[in-house]
């Protein structure tokens, strides 16, 4: 078995954080959660992660702004971490909009947890 992959979840909804943790921890992923983009950048400054799940609509710093900040990091390993958008407003964006912002993929809300798990596994393979 491979080492536990570390997933950083940026999401302002405690319900979604808890459900996501439950789904991913069942697969032995190590989950860390933050409530906004600023907290994500603070956490990323002190720890390494294998993947980020990024809510697009968060207070303080939204997911698009935060993704651009991650992509601009000096550390090339951290700047290239796969980032998957989580959004309820996917109709306001195209996949091309997400790609331009630096996001690798997206999952729409309400979350389909089988799809979430498959998308996470695809980017961590």
Automatic annotation (TrEMBL):
<keyword id="KW-0902">Two-component regulatory system</keyword>
<keyword id="KW-0597">Phosphoprotein</keyword>
<feature type="modified residue" description="4-aspartylphosphate">
    <location>
        <position position="55"/>
    </location>
</feature>
<dbReference type="Pfam" id="PF00072">
    <property type="entry name" value="Response_reg"/>
</dbReference>
<dbReference type="InterPro" id="IPR001789">
    <property type="entry name" value="Sig_transdc_resp-reg_receiver"/>
</dbReference>
<feature type="domain" description="Response regulatory">
    <location>
        <begin position="6"/>
        <end position="124"/>
    </location>
</feature>
<dbReference type="InterPro" id="IPR011006">
    <property type="entry name" value="CheY-like_superfamily"/>
</dbReference>
<protein>
    <submittedName>
        <fullName>Response regulator</fullName>
    </submittedName>
</protein>
């Amino acid at each position: 078995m491979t080492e536990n992959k570390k997933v950083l979840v940026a999401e302002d909804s405690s319900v979604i954080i808890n459900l996501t943790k439950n789904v991913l921890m069942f697969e032995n992923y190590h989950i860390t959660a933050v409530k906004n983009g600023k907290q994500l950048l603070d956490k990323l400054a002190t720890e390494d992660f294998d993947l980020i799940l990024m809510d697009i609509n968060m207070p303080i710093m939204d997911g698009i702004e935060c993704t651009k900040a991650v992509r601009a990091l000096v550390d090339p390993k951290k700047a290239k971490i796969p980032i998957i958008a989580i959004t309820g407003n996917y109709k306001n964006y195209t996949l091309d909009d997400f790609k331009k912002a630096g996001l690798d993929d997206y999952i729409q809300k309400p979350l389909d947890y089988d799809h979430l798990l498959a998308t996470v596994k695809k980017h961590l393979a």
